[in-house]
Design brief:
The chain has eleven helices and 13 strands. By secondary structure, it is of the alpha+beta class. Strands 5-4-6-3-1-13 form a six-stranded mixed sheet, sandwiched between helices. A hairpin with a 4-residue loop joins β10 (about 330-335) and β11 (about 340-345). The chain binds adenosine-5'-diphosphate and magnesium ion.
């Protein structure tokens, strides 16, 4: 029995019916594009959230996480109300409860369950522990109750849980990456059509490593800024007479910018349109097996997020600049910004040098030590027991 199954048994006094796992994700390129109907190119991390679960006959939902001190949270599915999600130390339970709520809202016959989760994905590090928790829960509940859902459908329901029940206005990229990614591939995602393609991305075979540098900071600005960027993008698209910024082709960018009076709106539009173009270019390089050449596009993406989109921070900028100075092919912040993690593409042999350089630079700047790990593109969600 897996550790998570054993813990379930000790907690609830009987064994689970199964264990499901869903990974965190890193976005290779395509940041702040998913609420502009644009493109993204995430991949799944080896770190996963496991959910051990079993059906209950009384219809109740019991939730427990090894990663929080809240104890077992008991909820009545019939009374789940997005206006009153669990709060305080039980706040984490809104994610799995929201998944059950979203499944019921979609008219799916999901009953009660006992759930115990344990995660290797650090929470709040920009690596999408929230999507990992949602997708593991969604897969567990769907499997347990025999509900046939495609992976994109599952991801869409998980996202609805986070948007409508937890109250976080995230795009669909995180859930799609966790639900749909495959081992050794990046997931090319069209966030309008939800069409996806699996792009070979075998770094190890090319002698490369992807370093994930978790700055371990999260600045308070993040939530308000996210809403402001969304509104700014939607406003600019409306001003340009477009359904979304996705509909502004890269080659028409300069003309369009000339039609926007507000310099801030111009910067935001420039980021989104150039970022979509970078996704296209990175994808083409991956398909051609020219992995190293993606590096400069990653760094260009970072500059765009820092200067045009203004969502970086000192720690992320330092991680990127130091990794690049220590020999990375390229580096960028990944995730929403204002903290969280940066990604660096390096030669395998350069790992100790880059790791040391970033760690020392953080110490010199008086920042807390970053947490640096190697990320290999890994498999998406699956039943593991
Ligand atoms: P990220 O998704 O980047 O890790 P979020 O703020 O979106 O950051 O989600 C983090 C939140 O998700 C946590 O604060 C917690 O409420 C919830 N969460 C994620 N994983 C777990 C877990 N294993 N156990 C309990 N709560 C979790
Ligand atoms: Mg999240």
């Amino acid at each position: 029995m897996s550790g998570t199954a054993q813990e379930f048994k000790e907690l609830y006094g009987y064994p689970p019916e199964g264990v499901w796992a869903a990974p965190g994700r890193v976005n290779l390129i395509g940041e702040h594009t998913d609420y502009n109907d644009g493109f993204a190119l995430p991949f799944a991390l080896p770190q996963r959230t496991e959910a051990a679960a079993a059906r209950r006959t009384d219809g109740m939902l019991r939730l427990h996480s090894a990663d929080t001190p809240s104890g077992v949270v008991t909820l009545d599915p019939a009374e789940l109300d997005p206006a009153r999600p669990p709060k305080g130390s039980d706040g984490w339970a809104a994610y799995p409860a929201g998944v059950l709520w979203a499944l019921r809202e979609a008219g799916l016959p999901v009953g009660g369950a006992d759930l115990h989760v344990r995660s290797e994905v650090p929470a709040g590090a920009g690596l999408s522990s929230s999507a990992a928790l949602e997708v593991a829960t969604a897969l567990a509940l769907a499997d347990l109750h025999g509900i046939p859902l495609t992976r994109p459908e599952l991801a869409a329901l998980a996202r609805r849980a986070e948007n409508a029940y937890v109250g976080v206005p995230c795009g669909v990229m995180d859930q799609m990456a966790s639900a749909c990614a495959t081992d050794g591939h990046a997931l090319h995602l069209d966030t309008r059509s939800l069409r996806q393609a699996h792009i070979p991305f075998d770094c190890a075979a090319a002698g490369l490593r992807l370093l994930v540098i978790d700055t371990r900071v999260k600045h308070d600005l993040a939530d308000g800024a996210y809403a402001e960027r969304r509104a700014s993008c939607h406003g600019a698209a409306a001003a340009l007479g477009l359904p979304a910024l996705r509909d502004l082709p890269y080659r028409e960018l300069e003309q369009a910018l000339a039609r926007l009076a507000d310099p801030v709106a111009r910067s935001r539009v420039r980021h989104v349109v150039t970022e979509n173009e970078r996704v296209v270019r990175v994808e083409a390089l991956l398909r051609a097996g020219r992995l190293r050449e993606t590096g400069p596009l990653l760094t260009e993406g970072h500059r765009s997020l820092r200067d045009d989109y203004a969502v970086s921070c000192a720690e992320l900028d330092l991680a990127v600049a130091t990794a690049n100075a220590a020999g990375a092919y390229g580096a960028r912040m990944t995730g929403g910004g204002f903290g969280g993690s940066a990604l660096a593409l390096i030669d395998a042999e350069a790992e100790p040098v880059v790791t040391r350089a970033v760690t020392e630079a953080f110490a010199r700047a008086g920042h807390a030590p970053p947490r640096i790990t190697v990320a290999a593109p890994s498999a998406g969600a699956a039943r593991i027991l």
